[in-house]
Amino acid sequence: MGRSATWISVLALVLWVTACNAGENGKSYNGISWGFSRTWWSADANNEGYPAAGNAGAMVELRRVRMLNDRVAFSPYLQYFWMRSTITTLICDTCYGETVTERSFFREIDLGFNLHLFPVKSCDEFYIGGGPSVRWGQAARREAGTATNTFTAKAAWFGVTVLAGIRTPLYGTSIAFFEPQFTFSPDQADRWQAIYPPDKMSVHMGVLW
């Protein structure tokens, strides 16, 4: 989490020290973002999730922001999120300290679009929005030092995202942005099995050009 805190601090500094008239906030952009996510796995008896993979991970995203007018933007995106953890457990209660170490993995690809609504036009533009997505997830577990998974599962489901963000001009014609998101999937949205998906809070930061 130390690197994530550094990213947030650096971008937050950039957001508020750049010149107000350096960019063109009324046009359309391509962009890239990076950040981290915090997940919440369901504890319901019929939807256990896969918390062994952990509850925090990194993400990267490609997006297009197309201004429909001076108050509304349409933003399709492709996002990749991953996390992993290492777990050491006793083989049995009477095995005199013999343990097994396993590495757990979870990764997810999101494809979707969001609408961005700009309530007030200003130099540093605040916006709110959200939209639907399709999420593909894969979980796996293997013993440390081996390349063969002892467990693998996949899932696909629909998600819904709500967000708020702020963007401001950089020097030239680029724009920097900072954007928290919350993504969830309704009950029974899973297409393949019942153990997915996690709800996800993501912190995005990046540049549009």
Identify the overall geometry: elongated
Work out the radius of gyration. 20 Å
How would you sum up the major sheet?
8 strands, antiparallel, barrel
- Provide the low-confidence segments as ranges: 21-25
What string gives the helices and strands in order? HEEEEEEEE
Strand order of the largest sheet: 1-2-3-4-5-6-7-8
The oligomeric status of these chains comes to single chain
Euclidean distance between termini CA atoms:
28 Å
> Total strand count, please?
8
% residues in beta strands: over 45%
Round the mean pLDDT to the nearest integer and report it: 80
User: Treating each run of at least 4 consecutive H or I residues as one helix, how many helices?
Assistant: 1
Could you say which structural class the secondary elements and strand pairing correspond to?
A: mainly beta
Helix content: under 10%
Structure, explained:
With 209 residues, the protein is mainly beta. The protein is built from one helix and eight strands; from the N terminus they run H-E-E-E-E-E-E-E-E. The protein has one helix at 2-17; strands spanning 29-40, 56-67, 72-90, 99-117, 125-143, 149-169, 175-184, 199-208. Strands 1-2-3-4-5-6-7-8 form an eight-stranded antiparallel beta barrel. The longest helix has 16 residues, at 2-17. Residues 21-25 have low confidence and may be disordered.
How do you describe this structure in short?
This protein is mainly β and 209 residues long. The protein is built from 1 helix and 8 strands.
